[in-house]
Amino acid sequence: MVDEANRLARVDVAGVRRNVNVGLLDDDGEGVGPGDWVLIHVGFAISQVDEEEALATRRLLEGMGADYEQELEELKASAIE
Questions:
Q1: How far is Cα 1 from Cα 32, in angstroms, rounded to an integer?
Q2: Tens digits of per-residue pLDDT, 28-56?
Q3: Which of 12, 44, 45, 48 is deepest in the core (most CB within 10 A)?
Q4: What domains appear along the chain, each with residue ranges and CATH number?
């Protein structure tokens, strides 16, 4: 967590580090922590997924080839924090 009060966590998205709001996953009282896998959309962790599902999804995206690589390059070049 980089900002507990605002529920911001530093995450790694395919090697790119970003701050993401994890507050939506606090419903069960436990939230998420280091090592957990989450689905992120526009800066918010919207669901927790298991590692197997996360890796399968990443393999699918990597299979897109150039489109996936371009998306990663754009993510790396962005200055969103």
A1: 10
A2: 667 899 999 999 998 899 999 999 999 99
A3: 45
A4: 8-77 (2.30.30.140)
